[in-house]
Model the fold of this input.
Amino acid sequence: MNPYCLLLTALCLLPSTYGLAQESVRGVAEIWGELRVSVVDPDTGKPTPARCYLTDPTRQSWSPPGAVNYVKPPERHFITTGEFRIALPPRTYNLVVERGPEYPSHPREIEIRSGETREEKIELTRWISMNLRGWYSGDLHNHRDLADMDQLLLAEVWNSPRATVCMHL
Done:
């Protein structure tokens, strides 16, 4: 096969972030859209880490490139540092954003249209601060990569100024 044909074939398989069409399940080329999400603390307006579940109508999970992922069926989620972008085929998605037990879960239905960029701002409001009451959570049983632990701890409200996390191998 001609190397140029291989390159063209490979380019057709890339997401629409590069402005290319994707083959849908129906066999019709469709231009993907983009979802940009910012998860913020409403008191500071700054991005805050969180755990995210993004699924399509077939319950297929999606996650942005480079995100810390957890996949242990049926559980699948990714960690955001507070902002993420992802190219998606046009359809309706369910996004659930969580940040430990001190914040309510934020479910949201999001429609992605062909070629459009959809921006979502999720404000996570803490309903209780257990650290201020002298309580500190801890989970010593984890099935996660050690390299991912700093992001995971921040996404689960371990960033209290009164709490210190030490990890030893």
In short: The chain has two helices and ten strands.
